[in-house]
Amino acid sequence: NAGVTQTPKFQVLKTGQSMTLQCAQDMNHEYMSWYRQDPGMGLRLIHYSVGAGITDQGEVPNGYNVSRSTTEDFPLRLLSAAPSQTSVYFCASFTLPRVLDYGYTFGSGTRLTVV
Amino acid sequence: AQSVSQHNHHVILSEAASLELGCNYSYGGTVNLFWYVQYPGQHLQLLLKYFSGDPLVKGIKGFEAEFIKSKFSFNLRKPSVQWSDTAEYFCAVNVQEDMRFGAGTRLTVKP
Questions:
Q1: Is B103 on the interface with A (CB under 8 A)?
Q2: Which of A85, B7, B31, B107 has a 20 to 30 A CA-CA distance from A41?
Q3: pLDDT digit string (tens) for A10-43?
Q4: Do B102 and A42 touch (CB under 8 A)?
Q5: Where are the beta strands (DSSP E) in chain B?
């Protein structure tokens, strides 16, 4: 089925560990974004990409890196995990001409706990 | 960048009650407005959207929203809620590739 695939669904990290959250979409969307969702704060934009090779920072980029080597993939890297990064992470994609029809397409989320 | 405020953090209603969730945004230019719903344990799904035309827009499951430009508001309404509407609701403002979300309103509908 077409859509946004996120892996893993759950992850527990120790403080200081690094990891990569994977995001892939098969809809040929040029735009992809990473959000974190925290209680009472909604979704906050971490990084986004407007196409392969182009990324930019969102509201809360510190502690995260991204790259966009292909249109399909947009991995999010935690360089040195901290308890403050405990959150649910959502990847989203859209194509600008169709965002008004379909909005963003979201992945199912990754629940990350940093201990 | 644009910002979004949702003033109700948690709303509790009985079935058949009417619902109105507030959403205000701050941005001086043209925006596209969305409401998303997140059912427990699921990802966000598009409920309805507005980008031009009739300021009263209808979405899925009997939801509607009204865009009032002078008030920078895009409130979500439903005349009669059901237990299955229990979820978290997010208002979002889109300008080009940037989508900003409100903090969300948790709706609990008691049977």
A1: yes
A2: B31
A3: 999 999 999 999 999 998 888 899 999 998 888 8
A4: yes
A5: 3-5, 10-14, 19-21, 24-26, 32-38, 45-50, 56-58, 64-68, 73-78, 87-95, 98-101, 105-110
